Amino acid sequence: MSVEFERQEYAVYEASEALGHYVESLSLLLADPDVTRTTAEKTKVCTWLRDLEAVRLADIDEAPVQHLAHLLRGLAQIEANAARLQ
């Protein structure tokens, strides 16, 4: 299986919904033992996660709760599988 990670830009209202689903999808890929990542891909994911924390989550105050549910679930699963990014 081949997966490509890339930065996506969204309209302001769509941002929290798309971001929540994107984070949750990333978390599912990290949790799957059959999905492997190259060192370069791990670096891209870690860079994206740092950007997520520093920039994207800074403006999430007005996100609807249903968008946050996907985001929080994904972040928890990413944290649980953080060793796979080492």
Structure commentary:
This protein has three helices and no strands. With 86 residues, it is mainly α. It has one domain. The longest helix has 20 residues. It is globular and about 35 Å long. The mean pLDDT is 82.
Q: Features of this protein?
A:
single chain; mainly alpha
What does the secondary structure layout of this molecule look like, with pairings?
Blueprint: H1 12-31, H2 39-54, H3 65-80
Q: Which structural class matches the secondary elements?
A: mainly alpha
Distance between the termini: 20 Å
Strand content: under 5%
Radius of gyration: 13 Å
Give the count of structural domains: 1
Gross morphology is globular
Average residue-wise pLDDT: 82
Largest sheet: none
Give helix and strand order, one letter per element, not per position: HHH
Number of strands: 0
The number of distinct helices, counting runs of at least 4 residues, comes to 3
* Fraction of residues in H or I helices: 55-70%
Short précis:
60% of the residues lie in helices and 0% in strands.
